[in-house]
Amino acid sequence: MNVKTKKQLEDENAELKQQLMEKAVQISNTAASHIVAPGIEMVPIKNYGGTIVTVVDEINGQEKPIVLDTHGIKQQRKITLEKWLELERESALVKDGYIARTDQPVTNPNIIDGLDEFTKGLKEDAIRDRIAQITNANVLHRFNDYLSPKERSKTINAKELLVLAAARDRIFELTDLRIVGIDPAGE
User: Fold this and answer.
1) Are the CB atoms for 106 and 65 separated by under 8 Å?
2) Cβ atoms of 70 and 76 closer than 8 Å
3) Does the pLDDT of residue 27 top 70, yes or no?
């Protein structure tokens, strides 16, 4: 007889729940793609905003909420082209960089896919210029939230410190909210 500890059972349960969730999403996406009437074009979108986004799309005369999570499988979904065009025209979700199509090059300065990758390949002036283009304070706050713990633990490198300072300055320009960091000398 194979006896498992509580920890092993909890880990196994969590793994099975994750597999079940992934399978449910896969089935849901497959079912949705088969339900769509011929001639309806679907486009892939992704949530870049750091918050859960819900888009209500009308498919075959029925409204269907499309939930875009912040990470994982549900971060990317498909919606009708008609709904995407409507969102582009009328919604701040696109303008502010919360969602974007993944089948086209990203040109919105508010979209930052990965905070770690943001500075790779950019020189200091380019980093400042890129941050100056961002118009969504929430995107800038993500930089602050991500880099502040590194600043406090003094594990922040020079490029990250530049990003943090530029993001805080831009937040102030957009919102009149001044975020003060720690003194680099530790005083």
Assistant:
1) no
2) no
3) no
